[in-house]
Specification:
The structure is a single chain. The chain is built from six helices and ten strands, in the order αβββαβαββαββαββα. The chain has 248 residues and is an alpha/beta fold. The chain has a single domain, classed as Aminopeptidase. The strands form three sheets. Strands 4-1-5-8-6-7 form a six-stranded mixed sheet, with helices on both faces. A two-stranded antiparallel sheet has the order 2-3. A two-stranded antiparallel sheet has the order 9-10. The termini are far apart. About 6% of the residues have low confidence. Bound molecules: zinc ion (ZN).
Length: 248
């Protein structure tokens, strides 16, 4: 009898914990109704950084693939929270210029939803010839981008523990269209530990190219941790600064 009673109490507690947890997960975030453009850096013939460093076509990891993996994982999380997501690069196509990426985002937000995107996040990863080096930075361009850049940096830094800070960059991603935006470099894919974590992921198809070929990336804990951090950064940004309705 004693054992059954304890069993019931334990079961009851688990149910309660479960309900609380469910309640917390379904709690509304500030992302509900937001239109967020995500830009997976590089693509196609533009490989971005490589692991091992500068190994070109023989690389085990291309930055363009890590960027794409994170963008698709983040897209799923944002849509789960009621946000609408617009992608610049859809799969493994080459996009000639940063300006055309921003133009694509602006065009899509306007034609599909009749207004400006609430934010644009360009996802990149860094590279170095030092395979022991790791760190996190976020690049902004205009003053209006600083709150978003700060929120993303704060959320991403725990991934590496090395805060490289905000960079006021000439990356050009944010100078077009006056869209609130930031470019993230969550970690160095040339770092031995980071590379192994990505390579431990499971091969997953995330999209199809225009010629019908399937695009696979490695999805794993590291991709999910970063997508989770970016999600948190965006949520913190929107809850701290309720955005004005987008201008047309
Ligand atoms: Zn890059």
């Amino acid at each position: 009898m004693g054992k059954i009673k304890i069993g019931l109490i334990v079961l009851g507690s688990i149910t309660l914990v479960g309900l609380v947890a469910t309640g917390m997960i379904s709690a509304q975030t500030s992302l509900q109704g937001k239109i967020i453009a995500l830009d997976a850096g590089h693509g196609g013939t533009e490989l971005g950084a490589q692991y091992p460093a500068n190994s070109g076509e023989n690389a085990q990891i291309y930055e363009k693939d890590v960027n794409l993996a994170v963008v698709y994982a983040l897209k799923a999380k944002l849509e789960g929270a009621g946000a609408t997501v617009v992608l610049t690069r859809k799969c493994d196509e080459t996009i000639s210029s940063r300006k055309s990426r921003v133009d694509m985002a602006i065009e899509e937000c306007k034609s599909l939803y009749g207004r400006k995107c609430d934010a644009l996040v360009s996802v990149h990863h860094n590279g170095s010839i030092d395979s022991t080096y790791d760190g996190t930075m976020v690049i902004y361009n205009e003053k209006q981008d600083i709150p978003l850049a700060k929120a993303l940096l704060e959320a991403l830094v725990p991934l590496t523990g090395n805060n490289e800070g905000l960079d006021h960059g000439g990356y050009g991603m944010t100078v077009y269209g006056h869209l609130v935006s930031a470019l993230t470099e969550a970690y160095y894919i040339t770092n031995e530990g980071e590379a192994q974590q990505y390579l431990n992921g499971t091969s997953t198809q995330v999209c199809s190219n225009s010629d019908g070929s399937a695009k696979f990336v490695l999805n794993g804990d590291r991709v999910n941790q970063e997508a989770g951090a970016l999600f948190q950064g965006l949520d913190n940004y929107f809850s701290a600064s309720p955005t004005k309705p987008g201008r047309k």
